[in-house]
Amino acid sequence: MNGPVPVEVLKQHLIDPEICIRCNTCEETCPIDAITHDENNYVVRADTCNGCMACISPCPTGAIDNWRDVLRAEAYPVDEQLTWDELPVQDDALAGQGSIGEAAQGSQGASGGGAGAAGIGVTSEASAPVIGGSDLVRGSVVPPWSAAKPYVNLYNHKAPVQASVVGNYRVTDASTESDIHHIVLDFGKQPFPVLEGQSIGIIPPGTTADGRAHHARQYSIASPRDGERPGYNNLALTVKRVTKDHQGQAVGGVCSNYLCDLKKGDVVNVMGPFGSTFLMPNHADSHLLMVCTGTGAAPMRAMTEYRRRRRMKGATGKLMLFFGARTQGELPYFGPLLNLPKDFIDTNLAFSRTPGQPRRYVQDAMRERAADVAALLRHDHTYIYVCGLKGMEDGVLQVLQTIAGEAGLDWQALWQRMKTEGRLHLETY
Predict the structure, then answer these.
(1) What CATH class does 161-274 carry?
(2) Domain residue ranges of the chain, discontinuous segments joined by +
(3) Which of these, 141, 118, 150, lies nearest to 297 by C-alpha position?
(4) According to the annotation, is 124 in a ligand binding site?
(5) What are phi and psi of 192, to 5 degrees?
(6) How far is CA 7 from CA 225, 345, 389, in A?
(7) What is the CATH code for 287-428?
(8) 189 labelled as ligand-binding?
(9) What is the pLDDT, as a whole number, of residue 428?
(10) What is the topology classification, in CATH, of domain 9-82?
């Protein structure tokens, strides 16, 4: 007599649509293309996901870390997941029985950015494989050991916090096409504790063409933990008005245009805070090597300003900044940057579209300062932060590898050690 056919229970990987901010980090990180998306949701293919967990740590909100035990034959299909506004309830009869099955065969690949973006530059050297480049999680997934403890996900789509606009200033030259704003939001008596390197979600008003509420957009915080104005419950953002898509076609960025047009006194719905790894160290002798382009300057501004405020309290670590833009007029905070004391921060600017001048990118500036960069790489208290367009990541890692090699350092070993110790942080998009 035949026995009962065993029923296989799968621990299905799902993404919570209520707190996902559609930043695309998970899809870029997944090594087997198990994650996809449409205009509504990011979802996981049950027949492809192998539970490798590569996407878990990089997710800024934790939306990626959700699981449901289901019968394998009844796993939630992609088409159904794309329609969800919230996760399904766990079937109590199956709870705790799921296991992650064998991986479907997939090809590993990494996405990259286009050449010629402001201050980035992709040369034949930069596009060559970086040692260890098959490791798609190229930066640290743990914070610095001395970083303060972050608060995350205090507010979500269903229950956002409201903040009032107390300032909105353009920080690029009025004659340039690049319209970047410094926007200050005040939370009044509502708690919203943040750290340098964290981000928030802004929920733009209105609905999409199909009548759905807009999803939140993510923006890095550009002010230190004690407020844009010291001692106040406020923070600043660096926002670029989006007027073209990646193909150069005219398009109006829903949230960026909303933010750039805000007036003093307007009220904004905010989610977050997000982020628990891209944080600055708190020990006073830590050195910061910062590389950024455009609005990627936001977390660097936050870290620099916090360190400036601590300078008179014994902070002795060095700050070195490489900042790229197309032209001087398109570089946000250009004037304030020049006013920072030279003995406080070593600032190196790179402009890729200055008329009559050769194109110069952040990698070029780093090569010119190779001896000083190498000195920082040798130091166990050096922390590296890279923020900007995805296209800069390969180039920056390549030039670090070159500088390390010329200085007699084993880059592969150093890279892995810095990642493990929370000293190499990449935030590219």
Answers:
(1) mainly beta
(2) 9-82, 161-274, 287-428
(3) 118
(4) no
(5) -150, 70
(6) 52, 63, 47
(7) 3.40.50.80
(8) no
(9) 86
(10) Alpha-Beta Plaits (3.30.70)
428 is in an annotated binding site: no
- The 10 Å CB-count burial string (b at 16+, else e) for 266-276 is eebbbbbbbbb
353 is in an annotated binding site: yes
d(CA 429, CA 424): 16
SS3 348: strand
Residue 227's region, left for phi above 0, alpha for psi from -120 to 50, else beta, is left
**Run of H or E residues at 383:** strand 382-388
Which of left, alpha, beta for 314 (phi over 0: left; psi -120 to 50: alpha)? left
Structure tokens at 109: 């690949």
| 348 vs 321: CA distance, rounded Å | 6
The pLDDT value given to residue 141: 87
Tell me how many degrees the CA angle 417-423-424 measures, rounded to the nearest 5: 90
240 is in an annotated binding site: yes
H or E segment to which residue 396 belongs: helix 392-406
What residues have CB less than 8 Å from 302, skipping those under 6 apart?
196, 197, 220, 221, 222, 223, 224
Give the distance from CA 397 to its chain's centroid. 17
Q: 289 forms bridges with which residues in the sheet?
A: 320, 384
Angle CA(305)–CA(307)–CA(312) in degrees, nearest 5?
Answer: 115
Residue in the block written with tokens 């960069």: 373
Q: Dig out the tokens for 71 from the structure.
A: 């019968």
Residues 393 and 89: their CA atoms lie apart, in Å, by 39
Distance CA 287, CA 39 (A): 41
Residue-wise pLDDT for 82-136, tens only, equals 999 889 998 887 787 766 644 333 332 333 333 334 454 544 333 333 433 335 5
Spell out, as residue ranges, where the chain has pLDDT lower than 50: 1, 101-118, 120, 122-134
Residue 272 counted as an annotated binding residue: no
DSSP classification of residue 227: T
The pLDDT of residue 327 is 95
Q: For residue 166, what are the β-bridge partners?
A: none
Please tell me the distance from the alpha carbon of residue 281 to that of residue 144, in angstroms, as a whole number. 5
Cα–Cα distance measured from residue 424 to residue 412, given in angstroms and rounded to the nearest whole number: 13
The pLDDT of residue 49? 93
Nearest to 384 by CA among 398, 373, 395: 373
